[in-house]
Design goal:
Blueprint: E1 5-8, E2 15-16, H1 20-31, H2 40-45, H3 49-60, H4 66-83, E3 86-87, H5 91-100, E4 104-108, H6 113-122, E5 131-133
Parallel strand pairs: 1-4, 4-5
Antiparallel strand pairs: 2-3
Helix pairs in contact: 1-4, 3-4, 4-6
Length: 134
């Protein structure tokens, strides 16, 4: 069987990004002069953004609105993805090999474009993809 296209997930597959959100959480709390309880990351990982923001407000008695916390987390994520998130080991080589074999490459991700496009560009692989599936 010959394949003509390959669809890739990004977070944890092509991108070595699984600890980015944990680092964002820690940096956010430190920026606000708060220490990170051992259970905090596990608690917010199972929540939506809105729920995690509200949990953070309630836990630390913050006066910020959840929308502002979410905006700050997103701004931090945009920076991290654009400047620090790297490809998983051998991902670039694999993508290049697939292109040499005339494969069409697609990205299927739940990440917003403002996170993944700069990341793929920074890692010099954006031009290898033919389509994005959101």
């Amino acid at each position: 069987m010959r394949f003509e296209a390959v669809i890739f997930d990004l977070d944890g597959t092509l991108l070595d990004s699984m600890d980015v959100w944990e680092q964002i959480d820690i940096c956010f709390l430190q920026k606000h002069g708060l220490s990170v309880p051992a259970y905090y990351v596990a608690e917010i990982c199972v929540r939506s953004f809105a729920e995690a923001a509200q949990y953070t407000i309630d836990l630390f008695g913050l006066s910020e609105k959840s929308e502002n916390i979410i905006r700050e987390w997103n701004e931090m994520a945009v920076y991290e993805y654009a400047h620090h998130v790297k490809l998983s080991p051998y991902a670039r080589e694999y993508l290049i090999e697939l292109k040499k074999r005339a494969m069409k490459l697609a990205v299927d991700t739940g990440l917003p474009r403002e996170l993944f496009l700069p990341c793929l560009e920074h890692n010099s692989v954006l031009g290898l993809f033919d389509i994005e599936v959101l």
